């Protein structure tokens, strides 16, 4: 087995990161997002977290306490950043220079962009030898 064939594809890394991020939200916030989508673009990683708003934030927002709900979300995002950074670095095997994130209470989505120090090494799916049937 060559070194190239033992490397994961970009899609495999994106799926693994999505699963691990969903578990991180569940473990840390007691709330599991319905979907986490990750997309690698060279040394950038875009993450969309669907249904990321926790029940306490939803209660605050629905009772007219939107500013407090937004403050809670902002503080949670800041508290989660070191955990997100460590998880991304572990899964992708590269350093994270910066994490930018924002959430929208109305749509219950969080968008995260991670700026990586280098492009993660991945196997090119076209390089996989075709098995003849």
Describe the structure using short key phrases.
133 residues; single chain; four-stranded antiparallel β-sheet; 4 helices; alpha+beta; 4 strands
Verbal overview:
It holds the Pfam family MpsC. Residues 9-117 form the Na+-translocating membrane potential-generating system MpsC domain. This is Na+-translocating membrane potential-generating system MpsC domain-containing protein. InterPro entries: MpsC. There is one protein chain. The chain is an alpha+beta fold. The protein has one domain (3-119). It is 44% helix and 23% strand. The protein has four helices and four strands, in the order H-H-E-E-H-H-E-E. It has helices at residues 3-6, 10-29, 55-62, 66-92, and strands spanning 35-41, 44-50, 96-104, 109-116. A four-stranded antiparallel sheet has the order 1-2-4-3. Helix 2 (10-29) crosses helix 4 (66-92).
Write the layout of secondary structure elements.
Blueprint: H1 3-6, H2 10-29, E1 35-41, E2 44-50, H3 55-62, H4 66-92, E3 96-104, E4 109-116
In whole angstroms, the N-to-C terminal distance is 21 Å
Number of domains: 1
Query: Kindly state the mean pLDDT as a whole number?
Result: 90
Low-confidence stretches: none
The proportion of residues forming helix, as a percent range, comes to 40-55%
The general outline is elongated
Domain Na+-translocating membrane potential-generating system MpsC: 9-117
Protein name: Na+-translocating membrane potential-generating system MpsC domain-containing protein
Pfam family, one: MpsC
InterPro entries: MpsC (IPR018745)
